[in-house]
Amino acid sequence: MNDIQKVMRERYPGNTWADVARRDGELPDVLALQSNPEQDLRDIPFDRYTDQAFFDREMEQVWKRVWQFACREEYVAEKGDFFVYDIGRLSVLIVRQDSGLKAFYNSCLHRGTKLKGSGSCGWSASIVCPFHNWEWNLDGSLKNIPCDFEFPQLERDKAHLVEVRVETWNGMVFVNFDGEAGPLIDYLEVLPEHFANWDLTGWYVASHVRKHVPGNWKVAIEAFMEAYHTPYVHPEMTNVVSDQNMQHDIFSDHVSRDLCAMASPSPTSKKSLTEQELLDTMLVGDGKMVGERSKVPEGKTARWVMAEQLRKQMSETYGLDYSRHSVPEMIDSLKYHVFPNILVYPAPGLCLVQQFRPDGYDRDRAIFDQYVLHPKPKDGDFEVAEMHEIGEDDSFTSVESMDPFLASVLDQDTDIMRWQREGMYTSGKGAETLSIYQEARIRHLHDTLDKYMEGRK
């Protein structure tokens, strides 16, 4: 146990995430791990968020070199399916063809016109430019040019759409603009080992909401990498969700996580709820996944009951066996960060993917995508959700497919971003001071960012 862990146990005796999680049984090895390496406790300058030159370097040194999540495989499941992923001024067209997935720069070889619209997805028998109708096969080979006699200089067998690296893991599609980058599996470091018990390939996107938010992409993702703010921004959550006693782990350059107990009050809560009251008010990603709440038997916890109920639902409705999964594996917020910009929550009770990136080429605005995943039904009858896009001033509660409570929490998280962005610009100090533990993963994000910016990765 290192010094940070000792401090947390002394500050929250018997009430750390590990303490709460073990009340209902032993933890699997992957959740029993704790990893908190020492860090340089320097302040983080605000110009890393506000300076255009820094943003320009990020686009060149980071976004053009990292593996980055583009979409779920369900969007490109059948031959001819396509999905457009945009980052900064770059755009990638991902296509399913006979031999698997291909990804291309979303730009015509004739006059450079975008082949498919930003953020679009759908089906197409071939790839056709909307300007002059140049056409390519799904594998990127040239198919047809109107008035082809006008282009005697063109070597048709070489007029292949320019490819971008594309690979998949756990039902997720990743792209990389760096042709010399190592394979995705190496980039993910410890993640495949940690997710050995969490197979998301049999799940699908039940809700996909995209919101334009008022802050740098790091401001956006960092709001979801700590719960230090929860008692003040989300006070209604403190009675039923742990926060400042969460566990934070840093495993490698690209992977960190936080573990948050559900149906377990925050240390800041002023209420004392019974186990039944905790069960009745417990937060899950989508209440429909669980159904009606039952009674808490004598000697059991709300967490145990919810896990049992969810295991039963998973078996009866989806044919999935979670009998060997621990209580926290079923219901807790197990949130993994994959550098630079995604958070993956694998527990069935809160199965999400959250994605953050620059909004176009604007350092002061970001795009936040939230995917809610559900298991594919036993009968195979499901419909992948279309993306619902909302603006900076729109509420998540306006999206019918979203759980109302989760939507209101996301509104609180994104509303504060404008205040933070404006405060960074007006700061007399010019830097932020991060906590040693609860905000350690934010500091770690900047440590890894520096390695890319300085050419050490």
TrEMBL record:
Sorted UniProt keywords: 2Fe-2S, Dioxygenase, Iron, Iron-sulfur, Metal-binding, Oxidoreductase
InterPro entries according to UniProt: Rieske_2Fe-2S, Rieske_2Fe-2S_sf, Ring_hydroxy_dOase_asu_C_dom, Rng_hydr_dOase-A
Pfam family, one: Rieske
Domain of life, per lineage: Bacteria
Cofactor(s) the protein requires to work: Fe cation
GO molecular function annotations of the record: 2 iron, 2 sulfur cluster binding; dioxygenase activity; iron ion binding
Domain Rieske: 67-175
Official protein name in the record: Phenylpropionate dioxygenase-like ring-hydroxylating dioxygenase large terminal subunit
Species classification: Bacteria, Pseudomonadati, Pseudomonadota, Alphaproteobacteria, Sphingomonadales
